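Handover notes (outgoing to incoming on-call)

Open items:
1. asparagine synthase (glutamine-hydrolyzing): sequence verified, structure written out, both below. Nothing else pending on this one.
2. Nothing else urgent.
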Amino acid sequence: MCGISAFLSLEGQVESLPNDETVPERNRAGLEKSLDVIQHREPDARGVWISSDHRVGLGHVRLSIVDLSSDGDQPFIDSEDGIYAVVNGELYGHERYHRELANEYRFKGNSDCEIVIALYKHYGLSFLHHLRGEFALVLWDAKRERLFAARDRYGIKSLYYTIQENRLLVATEMKCFLKFGWRPEWCVETLRGHAWQFGHKTQELEIRSEAEMIAGVRERLIEAVKIRLRADVPIGVYLSGGLDSSCVAGIIAHLMRENSAKLGSDGSGDLSRLRCFTVQFDKDSGTDESDIAARTASETPSWDVNGITKVALSEKVNSLGMKVVLVGQGADEHFGGYNNFRPDEIQEPDLSWPESHFPDEDRRQLWHDVQGSSGAVVSGNHETTAPSSTARMVNHTQTIRQLARLGQLPFLPWTSCYISSGDPETLLAESIDPRAREKMVTKWHPLHTSQYIWTKSYLPTISLRYVGDNVDIAYHVEGRLPFLDHHLNEYANQLPPSLKMKYDPTTRCFNEKYILREATRPFVTDELYERRKKPFSGPTRFKENGPIHGTFLRLLTRENVAALGFLEWDSVQSYLEGAFAEQDGVAFRKIMLIAQFVVLMQRFGVQTAKAPKGVIYPQVS
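asparagine synthase (glutamine-hydrolyzing) structure tokens:
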């Protein structure tokens, strides 16, 4: 895990600078200061490269995990062909490319990330398809005057960009842009309307047996875990007490027993050295999983406190001198683990797996029963203003309605000027790649449609940011996610939907992640195998007049809410009272999100949002 910052001066004249500062001085100072902002991410090394014409600059801070020597420091430089690169993350299988490309490229050391330049020289822009892992990168080809920036397939490693004063800025964290003179402002249009950018089916009949598919998942998951155990530092596991993280720990133990993999730099094979970390909530919170986790281990703004719990975990990992942990995120998205996928799993027959068939009348009744009780991850009312054409675009799947409800807040009347172009549900549907929309209507089962929408929206923008890389780095910890290995996911995407979330018409029960559960059966206890899904979630109920309540009272004042400029105070006050006096979990999630807006405003000096010129609405005090 590392941090990167880069700039590219674009064509055109730059306005005069204050204090007689020159453009090169300004750019160099901005780059250096931007690295100061993310120095906490990676304390082991730091490097800067700026072109002789001062047009391009690449900066990097490093957390040393593979090749701990200075040979792994960045930026990487190929002076012969004028190619420069900075990389954040881990690239697996790099040993193979070190061997295969040694005659074409003179590697400086044994770093996994150095293969980026070698692969670019060998494959051109197609080099990206040969990268496997969690990564973000910026590459500058001086001869072709090409700046190339990319991140991994799921956005495990963040990468942001903006244009400011005729400069393209790219960085791991948006805070880096502040040091180049960028000033943040509220995009009320995004908050109001479209914060997410991005029948019978022609399914082919599945000819593989269930046992063959289970074995296929098992084989690919073991490989995904195994390659993530390679490091020159110790490795641990985040263990929630659920199936996903527990099977990762079980697979690691299996590989160690077989002597087929080392635990990072630890080659002792001693299972007692496999360290697992979990977070414990108060027993009366209803969300404590520490007991089952202990038995198994025997040896961006959001509306909940989950991110805070991950900070506590990374602090503990860091205190033990560890830098790498394996994490179970991504299994629910690809193997049907969320309860809110249930309506879409049973909406249509699974034509690829005839054994899953049950009468249409029973299916229709069950679909009606689960719509309002699917246990969705998100909260909000079920009202929709979307036209029927929107539902048809996504084959009537329910997930898009749930996502469109995210961030529903008490907006001031003037903000409605931003929703004239469409409701949130329609804007989200229209942002989907047209090729994917066509498959939703003509080819995909509704469950696969929901998984796609979730993976393109909630996963990268919330799950992988708020409880992922952005919080792990608080204490210099890198999370590795075997369930988001694209080799495993490409296989999972071709599995029959009814074997991911299997329904038993006799018991009228769902067995979520059925095929994953069977594939990991050898690596987990009976208790975990039989246990049903319980989402990782922090508590939403806290004592009135306690420390949490006091924090919200300090943040959510009339003055602070008014300074935001886009929210209505009376409703915020009502949510604040309901969250603590009435122990209302939905109200708590709303004030959690609003409080983070206040923190961002105060921390970065964001100006009050105002209605666009020409838009007149009554002012609300």
